[in-house]
Amino acid sequence: MAKVFMFYSRLRAEEKMIIEAAKAREIPLESIVVSDLVWPNDICQRKDVALCRCIGHRQNLALALTLEAKGVTTINPSNVMNICSDKIATSSKLSIAGIPQPDYAVAFSLEGTLKCVEKMGYPVVLKPPVGSWGRLLAKVNDKDALEAVVEHKLHLGSQHSAIYIQKYVDKNGFDIRATIIGDSPVSAIRRCSNHWITNTARGGEAQNYPLTDELKKLLVDVQRAIGGKLLAVDVFETHNGYLVNEVNGQPEFRSSQERITGVDVAGKIVEMAWTLAQKSDENDF
Fold it and tell me: Do the record's keywords include NAD (predicted)?
């Protein structure tokens, strides 16, 4: 019989919610901390389903790859983790699918960056291609600041050698964080802040946001373009419609839980994983 596992590096609020949700539904879930184990191992077998909940992308990716080699279904799959962990890969996938997003470009030198921003226009936001929690972002308003930031980035090593440039969008003090579980959008929140970075990890306040038909359609398009069974999509609301800012493949969701949205996100995650495990069993007959 297929099982559901949850692997984690630190027991955060989200992992505790998943464990409690499984208990409440009497869904067998085995939660295991990864730090004392070596991979691959005999914990999971073919047909099992694994929630990969490590904090770091590198650990999650290594975990998913070793599990997938044994036929285990991982949430999310390693290819989706790779797309979501890299803003250049994410933007490229969104572009291919024709999904609206802020203007962006990639440069490989100071000269290239200057030419790009002259054409794009100030202000712009420079982001590390790989990063989370709103860290190492820089809103750049003029040429002097751009030169300084890019010079720093180019001396920080290979991880910063590709400069990801995004046109700054005035989001009127908030953005939207929407959660997709399985193939369906389940909740959305406004993340409000007086600062231009509105991540809740940086102090943004969470408020419920309605899942309109327009927003649902956009989110379904994102899920089809990116893949995966658990996504958090960051969206800007503008006068010309919604713009997709980023897609997270290993989301924290404490701010999207019932007390804000009325939706039991942890419960829906557990139910989705258990449904996948049961389907895996049925396909063996």
Answer: no
What is the rounded CA–CA span in Å between residue 188 and residue 68? Answer: 31
Per DSSP, the three-state class of 47 is coil
Domain that holds residue 49: 4-83+267-275
Strand partners, 185: 180
Coil vs helix vs strand at 46: coil
Do 116 and 137 share a structural domain? yes
User: CATH no. for residue 46?
Assistant: 3.40.50.20
Q: Give CA 151 to chain center in angstroms.
A: 28
Judge whether 255 and 279 are in contact, CB under 8 Å.
no
Q: What pLDDT digit, counting tens, does each position of 27-54 carry?
A: 999 999 999 899 999 999 989 999 999 9
Number of domains observed in the structure of the chain: 3
In terms of pTM, does the model score above 0.85? yes
Quick one: which H or E segment has residue 127? strand 124-127
